[in-house]
Specification:
single chain, alpha+beta, Potassium Channel Kv1.1, Chain A, 2 domains, four-stranded mixed sheet, three-stranded mixed sheet, 9 helices
Length: 261
C-alpha cells in the first residue's frame, strides 16, 4: 500500500516526502517516567530550621539506620514550603552527624547533644565511637550500668518527686525520706523502722536491695544529680532514727529537702 505524498518546497525546488497519518495503531510518543532517585541525587534538607545540602548516598551510608530509612524509596517524605525534606530535630547538631557521614570526622564539641542525635538517627558506628569518649562513657555508660543494678531506680525517683510535690501545696519546702537498703539482710533489718516512719505519716521511698557491690554514697550522688537535672532544688542530710523498742540507731536513711520558692 503506497502512502500519499505531500510536496514541500525548499529554495524553489520541489521535494516530495511521505505524509504520515496518525492512526489508532500508531503508538503515541511519550516521555519516559522519572526513575527512582539515584545515590548521587542532591537533596536539600531543613533540619529544625537549619538548611543543609547533601546527597542520598551520604544519607544512606549506613543501611538499617533510621536516617537511611527516612530517605528510602518507601518512606513518606515530609517537606517544607520550599520543597526541602523536613526533619523535626535540633538542626545545630545535625552538622556533626553530616560531617561524620561525609568524611568520617568524629565530633569534638557538644558531645552529649551529638550523642543524643546519633542515637535518634540510629547511626550505630558513631554511637559506639562517642560512647568511648570520657564525656559519654562516664555519664551514659558507667553511671547507667551502675543504676541498672538498682531495681526500680527510675520508678522510685519518680515517686520521690511526686511525694515532694504533694507536700508542697502550702509550704515553701517539703521533705521526703529515702532509705538505702544494700542487701537482703538489711531489708529485713529496716522493715521495722520503715513501718514506724510510715505510721508517723512520713513519706519514705526505699531503694534496693541490690546484688552488686554498690556504694550508697554513689547512689545518693546519682539521686541528687537526677533531681537537679529535672530542674528541682534539693539537698539531703542523714536522718537518724532511734528505735522505740531497742537501742539501735538506723543509718542509711536520708532526708531530701526540696525548696519550691
Amino acid at each position: 500500500m503506497s502512502l500519499p505524498r505531500a510536496i514541500c518546497t525548499w529554495r524553489g525546488c520541489a521535494v516530495e516526502r511521505p505524509e504520515v497519518r496518525m492512526t489508532s495503531q500508531t503508538p503515541l510518543p511519550h516521555s519516559p517516567r522519572p526513575g527512582p532517585p539515584t545515590m548521587s541525587t542532591v537533596v536539600e534538607l531543613n533540619v529544625g530550621g537549619e538548611f543543609y545540602t547533601t546527597t542520598l548516598g551520604t544519607l544512606r551510608k549506613f543501611p538499617g539506620s533510621k536516617l537511611a530509612e527516612m530517605f528510602s524509596s518507601s518512606a513518606k517524605a515530609c517537606t517544607d514550603a520550599e520543597g526541602r525534606f523536613f526533619i523535626d530535630r535540633p538542626g545545630t547538631y545535625f552538622r556533626p552527624i553530616l560531617d561524620y557521614l561525609r568524611i568520617g570526622q568524629v565530633p569534638t564539641q557538644h558531645i552529649p547533644e551529638v550523642y543524643r542525635e546519633a542515637q535518634f538517627y540510629e547511626i550505630r558506628p558513631l554511637v559506639k565511637l562517642l560512647e568511648d569518649m570520657p564525656e559519654i562513657f562516664g555519664e551514659q555508660v558507667s553511671r547507667k550500668q551502675f543504676l541498672l543494678q538498682v531495681p526500680g531506680y527510675s520508678e522510685s525517683l519518680e515517686l520521690m518527686v511526686r511525694l515532694a510535690r504533694a507536700e508542697a501545696i502550702t509550704a515553701r519546702k517539703s521533705s521526703v525520706l529515702v532509705c538505702l537498703v544494700e542487701t537482703e539482710e538489711q531489708d529485713a533489718y529496716y522493715s521495722e523502722v520503715l513501718h514506724f516512719l510510715q505510721d508517723k505519716e512520713k513519706s519514705v521511698v526505699k531503694f534496693g536491695p541490690w546484688k552488686a557491690a554498690l556504694d550508697s554514697s554513689d547512689l545518693l550522688y546519682c539521686l541528687a544529680m537526677d533531681i537537679k537535672a529535672q530542674g528541682y532544688k534539693a539537698v539531703y542530710d542523714l536522718f537518724l532514727v532511734y528505735a522505740t523498742k531497742t537501742t539501735r540507731i538506723y543509718f542509711n536513711i536520708y532526708s531530701f529537702t526540696f525548696t519550691w520558692w
